[in-house]
Amino acid sequence: MTARLRLLLLALLIALIPLPAAADTWHFTEVAATTGAATTFAYQFGFFGEPDMMAGGGAGGDVDGDGDVDLFVLRGDLGPARLFVNQGDGTFVDQAPAAGLDIVGGIPNGAAFADLDGDGSLDLFVGGVHGTPIRMADWRMVINWMLDVNDE
Known about the structure:
Elements: H1 3-16, H2 32-35, H3 50-54, E1 58-61, E2 70-73, E3 82-86, E4 92-94, H4 96-99, E5 107-114, E6 123-129, E7 135-138, H5 139-151
Antiparallel strand pairs: 1-2, 2-3, 3-4, 5-6, 6-7
């Protein structure tokens, strides 16, 4: 099959894909403030180069095993990171200080939840730029600590 024929078939395939109807348009409603998940991101001292401009980030995962998506958010140098634990009723509670994840200082960059050590529980990886240390939290230890605190 020649390259010209492949391009023609690709163009024909794209032309046959139906466009969404006007009634199918997406919309977004801002509810962060009313759910307890409002936060800010900024650099008080400005950007010092390209790595700073790309710093920050967040991750979503079910950190407490209740089936709801929880959120971890980095905030630049504006304040500590936040761990918004989903309460299952449409609200969130910041548990970063209780879990020891209220990261401050440096320029943390990028966050991801994954089972990095193969123990069956989520771990949190947080990168960094300009000498900011890379961090990893073993979620099994954090959750056990949170359960102990909640039982008191």
